[in-house]
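Support case: user asked for a sample of complex input and structure output to validate their parser. Sending the pair below.
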Amino acid sequence: MSPAITPSVDVQGYVLALDRGYEPETHVWVLVVAPDRVRLGMDPLGVETAGALAQLALVPLGTEVRRGEPVGSIEAEKFVGPLTAPLSGTVIAHNTAAVADPGLVHRDPLGDGWLVEVAPSDLDAERALLVEGAEHVPPWFEHKLAEYRLKGVLAE
Amino acid sequence: MPAPDNLRVIDFGRADALRSQTLWHAVAYGVSAGSPPTLSFVRPAEPYVCIGYHRRLDEVDLDACRVRGLPVLRRMVGGGPVYLDDGQLFFQISLPVAAVSPNRTRALRDLLAPAVEAFRSVGVPAELDADLEVVVGDQKVCGHGAGQIESAVVFVGNLIERFDHDTATAVLRVPRPEARSELERLMRRYVAATPADPEAFRDAASDAYAAAFSLRAEPGRLSAFERERLAELDRRFEDPEWIAGPERHVPNVWQAKVRAGVWVLAAEHGGASVVAGVARGRIEHVSVADAELNGDAARVEQALVGHRFDDAPAVLGAFGPPGERVAAALARADASRL
């Protein structure tokens, strides 16, 4: 379930939760749900550029992944792409609802459309590579929006 | 280091089923590792069936394939199960991921546009429609799929010189004979071959892709690294575990796509069963059965044909509980998964 109240910010129509970090290039978010457990999902820009997801596959539970390695894959418009792990660790939970209905990722990317949970192996060091907090998230996202618009990645 | 300015063009000619897949996958790994952008061509020397990266192996009728002696392989790009033979010339463009838009729809449009230009250059009046299909009229004339392999994007398409609709339908697992007939009818209606000179098409595609990505087409060959990857891919693609694929969610309804926007559904609910062929959101053909219809099945079918799929519940409301059961069966469809 989505938290009832999550601090968030609206950046040019995109809502971003401020209780988590964002991998700045792959558009995967990281929410610490317990000291030894983080939840991963796609941010709104990742979801928008991926298109309507037809397929979602996740690496098996127990898989050890390193930051930058695939934690799963998505398919939209017959285009298969990787879901890249923003942190190293062991995959300990899948969102089976999203696997059964990948549209859930689109409908609620920051909440019920989460992807996997990971037991991180180097959280402190790798968390420093994420964009976090009300001071940093909006300017980073504004910059990405401007960059994507300049390159024609997003419709005006 | 300056960006490579060559588009390496490799024509693999005819290749057996396995190599007609592994050759271009090896190229994609090579491009990821620094080989120049590459346009490759390969024609299967033998017929086979190939399933998309995420799809369930049980979407293929393995018995039908066995009887026909057709190997079944799994590719690393998207799309569903397809039948391939020597009537199809396949092309693949492999590019560094940075050369392709992160927006998948935009990327596909960019990768399909040169193919359309190549078709037009050889006299096929192809267009890219709103569903990102290469069409002549409303018939799909080019299958395609794409994927990111490490740091490369590979896009695959084909020139269909001849298309064996019968076998293409027969290799798919279908729950009921009515579904197979409808699938075959829609396949014949919406998928067409466009006989064209394959060498002229190859040359036109080379020119079009080179121009689209500001590259210069140059003939080339596999690198040593790619040959090593080829050997590894040959082993991987024949591994039963790879062919079986990852465990996938099994939907509670059978549906198959013929082309974007055209699909067949077979579903049941509470004793009612339905097979529907849907094109552009409208029901083109439907067969229903329910013990309580008492001979009224034809009337239900007539009422549904031509209506929008989304309007089916309202149409079926006039047929009481059996109509409600047919509506519930239809409601199991999930077009977003196609």
